[in-house]
């Protein structure tokens, strides 16, 4: 699945959001953006020469149909990191949530994920606020709260939206969307340590983008490695050791025999496997799965403040959550998404 597969048809209006946006890539890949009324929610626009645009510059002087908006940030650590698209048609709306930036290297040479689903227009009977009294699905509630958009019928969505706009909030409010899905899962508390899939230096070096792929897989040295007070002399190299509590959790990326391994990971997924009640060993069945724009950072997930009474979030983030109940409802398929 590619961007042209998603941004297709005859939409009346499009909303695009991302951290990095390369106008030349979008316009050449999705020609209908040249003629369709479009709102772009951006953090940074990238020129063909990879120099950042001034934020006061237009998306493209030749395309007045495209309006660029830079969402308000609460601090210098904040950013617009949500990666999604909304396409409004006369018959309904298409929702896409992805992990890739709208730049050529992300969709050409890196591994990302895409979730896509089409929703028909809702009737008054379907609207939970209308005369029909129908229940509004949590997916719609989250999108309404996050985007103030509620013009589609999403009661049949096989997922839950998980969003985090930047603001001080209580942990209960932020995690409500995630807890709503996890509560319907029958997974007991985990008996095993989590596994973190993270590419090695050699895997990054041999990827399609080479060492430059590492810029899309950020990690702070002090978070991964033990500090070394002994500074190396001039001309000497420094050997870093992974923190002892992290080393057992790290797992290599991909399989050398699979061609996809060369596309370095930019995808962010979180999986919870069910465990056997007696042995505590994983059964191989998923309890829940989430694909989101969140990196492993406090700016994305939030930092607990005021003695646990407040969670401060700096980034705009968005993801989709599949629960065990969703897997059963879809016969194990999980919905209309796909990998890219």
The CATH class of the domain at 3-182: Alpha Beta
Order of helices and strands: HEHEEEEEHEEHEEHEHHEEEEHEEEHE
CATH topology of the domain at 3-182: Endonuclease, Chain A
- What structural class should be given to the helix and strand makeup? alpha/beta
Query: Roughly what fraction of the amino acids lie in strands?
Result: 25-35%
Would you report the number of β strands?
A: 19
Largest β sheet strand count, sense and barrel closure: 7 strands, mixed
What would your notes on this structure say?
Strands 3-2-1-5-6-8-19 form a seven-stranded mixed β-sheet, with helices on one face. The chain has nine helices and 19 strands. The chain has a domain at 3-182: Endonuclease Chain A (Endonuclease, Chain A, 2-Layer Sandwich). The protein is α/β, with parallel strands linked by helices and 340 residues long. 32% of the residues are buried. It has helices at residues 3-6, 23-29, 104-109, 138-147, 171-182, 201-205, 221-224, 298-301, 324-329, and strands at residues 13-21, 37-45, 66-69, 79-80, 84-89, 92-98, 110-111, 113-120, 160-164, 168-169, 196-197, 250-251, 264-265, 269-275, 282-292, 303-305, 310-312, 315-323, 338-339.
């Amino acid at each position: 699945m590619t961007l042209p597969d998603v941004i297709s048809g005859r939409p009346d209006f499009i909303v695009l959001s991302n951290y990095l946006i390369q106008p030349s890539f979008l316009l050449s890949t999705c020609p209908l953006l040249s003629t369709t009324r479009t709102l772009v929610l951006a953090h940074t626009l990238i020129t063909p020469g990879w120099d950042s645009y001034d934020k006061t510059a237009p998306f493209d002087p030749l395309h007045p149909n495209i309006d660029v908006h830079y969402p308000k940030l609460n601090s210098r650590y904040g950013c617009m990191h949500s990666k999604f698209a909304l396409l409004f048609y006369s018959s309904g709306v298409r929702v896409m949530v992805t992990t890739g930036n709208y730049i050529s290297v992300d969709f050409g040479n890196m591994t990302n994920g895409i979730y896509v689903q089409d929703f028909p227009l809702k009737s008054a009977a379907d609207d939970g606020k209308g005369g029909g009294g129908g229940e509004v699905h949590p997916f719609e509630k989250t999108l309404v709260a996050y985007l103030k958009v509620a013009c589609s019928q999403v009661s049949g969505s096989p997922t839950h939206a998980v969003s985090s706009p930047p603001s001080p909030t209580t942990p209960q409010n932020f995690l409500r969307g995630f807890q709503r899905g996890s509560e319907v899962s029958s997974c007991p508390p985990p008996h095993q340590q989590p596994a973190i899939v993270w590419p090695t230096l050699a895997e990054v070096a041999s990827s399609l983008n080479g060492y430059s792929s590492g810029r899309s897989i950020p990690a702070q040295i002090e978070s991964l490695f033990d500090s070394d007070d002994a500074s190396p002399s001039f001309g000497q190299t420094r050997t870093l050791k992974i923190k002892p509590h992290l080393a057992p959790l790290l797992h290599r990326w991909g399989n050398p025999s699979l061609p996809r391994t060369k596309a370095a990971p930019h995808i962010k997924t979180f999986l919870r496997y069910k465990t056997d009640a007696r042995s505590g060993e994983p059964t191989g069945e998923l309890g829940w799965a989430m694909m989101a724009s969140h990196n492993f950072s406090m700016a994305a997930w939030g930092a607990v403040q005021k003695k646990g009474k407040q969670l401060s979030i700096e980034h705009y983030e968005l993801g989709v959550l599949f629960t065990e109940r969703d897997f059963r409802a879809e016969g194990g398929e999980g919905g209309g998404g796909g990998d890219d």
